[in-house]
Design brief:
single chain, 61 residues, alpha+beta
C-alpha cells in the first residue's frame, strides 16, 4: 500500500524488542495493514484528490 506513511501502532519498537521478533513483526504488519485498509480517513485520501483545479472523487470530476 502506498499510504503506509505513518504507523498506527505507536509502541511497535517495544513490542519488537523481545520474544519471537520475526513472528511479532509479521503479525504487526498484518494488523497495521488491516487497520489502515478499513480506516475511513485513509479510504477518502485514496479516492478524493485535486488535480489542477479539478476535484476528483474516484472516477468522478
Amino acid at each position: 500500500m502506498q499510504w503506509q506513511s505513518q504507523s498506527v501502532i505507536k509502541n511497535k519498537q517495544a513490542l519488537l524488542s523481545h520474544g519471537n521478533v520475526e513472528g511479532r513483526r509479521i503479525a504487526l504488519d498484518i494488523i497495521e495493514y488491516a487497520i489502515k485498509a478499513v480506516n475511513s480517513y485513509e479510504l477518502v485520501r485514496r479516492i478524493v484528490f485535486i488535480k489542477g483545479q479539478t476535484l476528483n472523487v474516484g472516477r468522478l470530476k
